[in-house]
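User: Hey, my collaborator sent me this sequence without any context and asked if I could get a structure. I don't really work with proteins. Can you help?
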Amino acid sequence: MTHELGSSMRVRMMFRAITALGKSLGIRVAAEGVEDKEQIAFVTAAGCDIMQGNGLCQPLTPADFEAMLCGEEYCAPAVAIASGYDVTPR
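Assistant: No problem. I've predicted the 3D structure and written it out in structure-token form, which is a compact way to encode the shape of the chain:
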């Protein structure tokens, strides 16, 4: 569904309704396939709790994933920021 967010008002309305339903049931809502800044903004504004997709981070090789876990430069801050987490160093 996320791939059609930019082109279909009906899909945007359905996305908002599904997100609201999940929230009203106390379910964390996740969006998969978020591909660009516009989709990130829409999904965030709709109240989605978590998102995944190439708009946040490209797929990682096992070596890149290991580097990410070791604290080298990686894309997780973008994911955290888009999900509303404070990534300010303490």
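In plain terms: The helical segments are 9-24, 37-45, 62-69, 76-82. You can pass these tokens on to your collaborator as they are.
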